[in-house]
Amino acid sequence: MPYAHKVTPGKKAKLGDYSPNADDGLNKDEGKKRFAKLNAELDLMQEELYAAGKHSVLLVLQGMDTSGKDGTIRSVLLNLNPQGVRVESFKVPTEEELAHDFLWRIHKVTPRKGEFGVFNRSHYEDVLVVRVHELVSKDVWKARYEQINQFEALLAASGTIIIKAFLHISQDEQEKRLLEREQDVTKAWKLSAGDWRERGYWDAYMEAYEDALTRCSTDIAPWYIIPANKKWFRNLAVSEVLVDILRGYRDTWHETLDAMSKARLTELQEYRASLAKPAK
Ligand code: AMP
Ligand code: MG
């Protein structure tokens, strides 16, 4: 059984069916060992992705405050070559961003071929926070699920491998993490009264997440529910999904890289041969 739960396209995602506490019976040490192995493989695959330049990867991270989006980025991307990684965080839209369609700021920063892109929050905020706080009318946010699917289909058609992860924590775990931040003066900079305020809308967020996961899990851009109460398991589950999916592309990348190697070697041989010939 994979550690993460793929949301089957067309099926209703029910978050209550998945325990945020899951650890598949592993202990932390074993989990960390498995994670290290997967990470080493991810490292190799990133090099191939980059060199082959045929695809881009887009990992979308969503989750409630304190669900570990930043921590996942730090741990899972730790060994990757920063030259090929692009991390984008999406905050409250600026005036300029709001004066455009909601995908404008997103499309501009999608990863180019060869790049490993990560979205820390994403266009999904436009059917999450925006829906929960009624920042636009219902007609407007309702139309967005299909618009998102079309947008992601466009990205996929031009070679983007899209992987979407919902970091699933429990309400209790969130409270624990928020309180921990308060106790540790060195972490207090992370605090925000807004986090407590948003917490009050927990149920509305869960409903909005279930809809987003249900309507926007597609074959080309599936959603994965990641049990995230245990940080080490969350990291393991995210890297397993990534490695699993990217493995499916390795043959294509190897073919491209082999062809590139042959072409480069031939070029070099021809160059050497041209040096050996007497100049006319
Ligand atoms: P953080 O991730 O803690 O830095 O917070 C970013 C904040 O920006 C969160 O409260 C998000 O809900 C908010 N945000 C991100 N995208 C949007 C959006 N499209 N509309 C409104 N708020 C957003
Ligand atoms: Mg926050």
Structural commentary:
This protein is of the alpha/beta class and 280 residues long. It has 2 domains: 5-248, Rossmann fold (3-Layer(aba) Sandwich), CATH 3.40.50.300; 251-280. Helix content is 51%, strand content 12%. A 6-stranded mixed sheet has the order 1-6-5-2-4-3, with helices on both faces. The chain is globular, with a radius of gyration of 22 Å. The mean pLDDT is 96. Residues 65, 192, 195 line the site of magnesium ion (MG).
Give a quick rundown of the structure.
With 280 residues, this protein is an alpha/beta fold. It is built from eleven helices and six strands. It folds into two domains: 5-248, Rossmann fold (3-Layer(aba) Sandwich), CATH 3.40.50.300; 251-280.
Helices and strands in order, then pairings?
Layout: E1 5-6, H1 28-52, E2 56-63, H2 69-76, E3 85-89, H3 95-98, H4 104-107, E4 116-120, H5 129-132, H6 138-157, E5 160-168, H7 171-183, H8 193-199, H9 202-216, E6 223-227, H10 231-247, H11 250-276
Magnesium ion (MG) binds at residues 65, 192, 195.
Extract low-pLDDT stretches.
none
Number of domains: 2
Structural class: alpha/beta
What share of the residues lie within helices? 40-55%
Tertiary shape: globular
In percent, how much strand structure appears in the residues? Answer: 5-15%
How would you write the strand order of the largest sheet? 1-6-5-2-4-3
The first-level CATH class of the largest domain is given as Alpha Beta
Bound molecules: adenosine monophosphate, magnesium ion
H/E series:
EHEHEHHEHHEHHHEHH
Count of separate DSSP helical elements: 11
Largest pleated sheet: 6 strands, mixed
Find the count of extended strands (DSSP E, 2+ residues).
Answer: 6
Rg result: 22 Å
Mean pLDDT: 96
Q: What would CATH call the homologous superfamily of the largest domain?
A: P-loop containing nucleotide triphosphate hydrolases
CATH architecture of the largest domain: 3-Layer(aba) Sandwich
Distance between the termini: 69 Å
Task: Determine the CATH topology of the largest domain.
Answer: Rossmann fold
